[in-house]
Design goal:
By secondary structure, the protein is mainly α. It contains eight helices and no strands. It has one domain. Helix content is about 80%, strand content about 0%. The longest helix is centred in the last third of the chain and has 40 residues, at about 140-179.
Amino acid sequence: MQLSFLRQFFNAPWLIAVSAFLYVLSQASLASIFARMGVANFLTMQVTFFNAEDYLHFFAQLESLGLLEVYASHLQLDHLHPLWYALFAASTLSVLMNRLQLSAQNNWLLALPWFAAGCDAIENRIQSIFLLGHQHITDGLATLSTFASISKWLTVLVMVSAIGCWLLRLALSGCRSKA
């Protein structure tokens, strides 16, 4: 599938609105779960746990606090969450690219939401495997999960930066045209 097709397909302001609603609803639900576990602990786990020992310690800590089931419950929501943010990002990127009349050279950015969602799906699947039992937590899977998470977050940073720059560009061009 060509990226120019995706650019036109996702160029729909209504899709931004619908996917933003689903994304915010999903994110708020996940945030309420993470707040119970400690957001900093969760983010640290996502980007620094490269071995089984770190995960075993983390899960033991959650279990001792009675929070392991809370952690497991986040995966119920988090399996669909990547779809909502990928739709939101893809439609936002497409609409902005078209509104700013950016060249087709920028279309590669439309692959980023789906790459981030794929990384998130890999991370979620590995976390689900870990919850099947301690014997499933290996250094290799721990490393893969962490690399998937870091890749996701770096990709999100690129997308948010592009969207922010383009929104600023639109705002500044609107200010100049009114002056």
